[in-house]
Structure formats: C-alpha cells, structure tokens
Amino acid sequence: MLNRLFLSFFGILILTGCIFQGDTVQVLTAKPDDYELYLYTKADQEESAQDYLSALLDWKLKQKDGSELQFEQSEQKKDKLKLPTDELPLLVVKENGKTLTTIAGDNPREDILTTLEDKIVIAKK
Question: What domain of life does the native source organism fall in (predicted)?
C-alpha cells in the first residue's frame, strides 16, 4: 500500500514537471575561428527570425571558408537563459568569449549583414 502511494505521488510529480515546463528558445550556433555566433529565437515564432537567418546565410556565403562554417541548432529553456527573451530574436557575436555586439528585435536583413561584416572585419584587423 505504501509503495503504491509512493509511486502515485512520484508519477504525479513527474507529470507536473513535464506539464509546467517553461517555453523553449531555439539557439543557432556557429564558431568560425575565434568567434562565436548565437542566434536566439522563440521556438514557436521562427518566422520572426527570417531576416536573421537570411543575413547569416549571406554572411556565410561571402566567407572564403564558408563551406567549412557549420551551424548547429539546439533548444534551451527560456528560464535558464540570462538573456532578455522579450527582445527575441537576438543575435550575439563574441570574439574569444567577449561580446562584440548584439542585435535584437525586428531588423532588416541588410542591417544585420552590415553589422556582421563590420564587427568581424574590424576584429580581424
């Protein structure tokens, strides 16, 4: 009897944890040379990040070693990120672990691409 009660309680605890999980954020990551690029988007609003994805693809195609540059996609819980998730999509560009720039919210593809080219070219000089 005690075992059944314990198993029932444990089952309810597991189900409650599954039901009340926080929203997830999709993370697209690329690590060219000493740089790290992170694109954070809401999992259910992928269309809002279309300009960011287009700019990243354009930037990749302009690189000499663009074929070697790989993007990885993952998901993280929104409540575990230390980012302003109300400003998603959010692109973070880092060099050697230091943040060079962030671009947040709705931005045209051209502006995002220009920022990527300017920040990475300036950092390589």
Answer: Bacteria
Domain ranges of the chain: 23-124
> Does this model's pTM top 0.85?
no
With the C-alpha atoms ordered 103, 74, 35, 65, is the resulting torsion angle positive or negative?
A: negative
Q: Which helix (H) or strand (E) holds 102?
A: strand 98-104
What average pLDDT does this structure show over 47-55? 87
Per the document, the length of the chain is 125
Q: Is the Cβ–Cβ distance between 2 and 8 less than 8 Å?
A: no
* Alpha helix segments (H runs only) across the chain: 2-19, 50-62, 109-124
